Amino acid sequence: MPKVDFAEVKKTLTAKIKREPSELDVQSYLMYPQVFLDYEKFTVQYGNVSPIPTPAFFYGLQTGEEISVEIEEGKNAHHPLPYRGRGARRWYPHRLLRAERPARAR
Is the entire prediction scored with pTM above 0.70? Predict the structure, then answer.
């Protein structure tokens, strides 16, 4: 296996993601470059989505379902889906989160 210049990879990755990557970011990028870049793009767009329950994240909410996500210390956002018209697509809660208001895990 060829040797890797971590400093050079970090420099390349910094240019791609426009922030200083952590050591873990560099290692993730080395193992799965496109997966890491896709993940980075997603987190820049939506912020931290880890507090969203897995079924709601992957499958959206059904009519009548509601979730609560802590968006900052002591501040919860309640997201109900009271009604969905015929032919409407599922509602995915991660689309409400923004990088300016990252969610926090409890």
Answer: no
Closest by CA position to 95, among listed 64, 67, 72, 74: 67
CA distance 69 to 99: 15
Output the six-digit token pair for 58: 């992957």
Domains and CATH numbers, the chain: 6-46 (1.10.10), 54-95 (no CATH)
pLDDT in tens, the chain (106 residues): 789 999 999 999 999 999 999 999 999 999 999 999 999 999 999 888 888 888 888 888 877 788 887 777 888 887 776 655 555 555 555 555 544 444 444 4
